[in-house]
Amino acid sequence: MNDVRAKRIASFIEPLRVEPGSKVRLAKDFDPAFKAGVTKKREGRELLRAGVELLAEYQRRLAAEKTHGVLLCLQALDAGGKDGTIRHVMSGVNPQGVKVSSFKVPSAEELDHDYLWRYACRLPARGEIGIFNRSHYEEVLVVRVHPENLDRQHLPGASVGKDMWARRYREINDWERYLTDNGFAVVKLFLNLSWEQQRARFLKRIDVPERNWKFSAADIRERSFWKDYQHAFSEMLSATSKPWAPWYVIPADRKWFARLCAGAVLAHTLMELDPQYPRVSDEARDELRKARAELEAEEKPPTTAGGSRRA
Ligand code: AMP
Ligand code: MG
Questions:
Q1: Where do the Polyphosphate kinase-2-related domain residues begin and end (predicted)?
Q2: Which residues pair with 101 in a beta bridge?
């Protein structure tokens, strides 16, 4: 049964995976409105509910086993749906086992370190699922689209120049390889939103008072760099989708479908890790038996030497 479910999830997410070594042209290769075989929102929501239960079960096993960790990296353009995806996909999971980190414009202290430092500081421990709401990929996205960010990074002259993006891709690939070799799965999701849908979501953020706080003038400025971002995303996806940490391009125009896909990729990763509850040794089992016998033999609660103070 589990095997059938695992196969179904694997084939569902297959078209979303960026084939390692392939050259991605985002606008041509991935449709933000794609919805696989799931055509109805209600059906999608039911599937997500089942997925959320599955994730909760696997997360319990991951936490008990304490051998592997999972790092989920979420990238998107503004209004791509990162926050909602985290809220929905993780809704059934024990909050103690999940650590969400959001990355904004780097602080002075962060800029005083190498560019991966602040991300390394927030990595999940064994047994945990770490979620990066924006991630180290900003270092080859916003920093590439707005190179003035580089001026603030205090880099030596030799590490800035024409080949610097190829070098950063390699450094990121090596870092992720190191993490996966050490038991941490790296899951990378790009929520792929269309130009039209971003406009619709911005208008909603402007028109609905409860959503005003989500909108900033900077969002419109960033939108004017749409083409540059599409190019930066395409290059980044081509260079950093690796067998040990492939990218998944999630069609993000329908929120319910994006959440379903994100849940499916995470479930697939956990099923591949297949964490197990630790088995106790024969010795420990003897201890458990003894403790059980003691508990069964108990008659009444112990009284303190002086008896109750109230008496
Ligand atoms: P938000 O996620 O909407 O709160 O915005 C966070 C902002 O921080 C976005 O505009 C990002 O582009 C920006 N940001 C995130 N990481 C970096 C970085 N490494 N360098 C410069 N800006 C960044
Ligand atoms: Mg924003």
A1: 41-270
A2: 132
When pLDDT is averaged across residues 142-166 and rounded to a whole number, the result is 93
* C-alpha separations of 286 from 277, 280, 282 in Å: 19, 10, 6
Predicted pLDDT of residue 3: 86
Q: How confident is the model at residue 149 (pLDDT cuts 50, 70, 90)?
A: very high
Nearest CA to ligand 1 atom 2: 104
Q: Which residues pair with 191 in a beta bridge?
A: 76, 250
How many Å apart are CA 21 and CA 37, to the nearest integer?
27
Q: Which residue's CA is the nearest one to ligand 1's atom 8? A: 104
Degrees, nearest 5: CA angle 68-50-278: 30
HSE, side-chain direction, 13 A CA sphere, residue 236? 27
* Per-residue model confidence as pLDDT tens digits over 290-300: 999 999 999 88
Spatial separation of the C-alpha atoms in residues 21 and 13, rounded to whole Å: 18
Distance CA 226, CA 193 (A): 11
Cα of 103 from ligand 1 centre, angstroms: 6
Q: If pLDDT is split at 50, 70 and 90, which confidence band does 39 have?
A: confident
Strand partners for 304: none
Residues with CB under 6 A from ligand 1: 103-106, 134, 138-139, 142-143, 149
Residue ranges with strand state E in the chain: 69-76, 98-102, 129-133, 184-192, 247-251
Q: For ligand 1, atom 6, which residue shows the shortest CA distance?
A: 104
Cα separation of 63 and 282, whole Å? Answer: 23
Structure pTM? 0.94
Residue 83 amino acid letter: D
The more confident residue out of 266 and 2 is: 266
Q: Which of 83, 134, 150 to mutate to test the pocket of ligand 1 (most atoms within 8 A of CB)?
A: 134
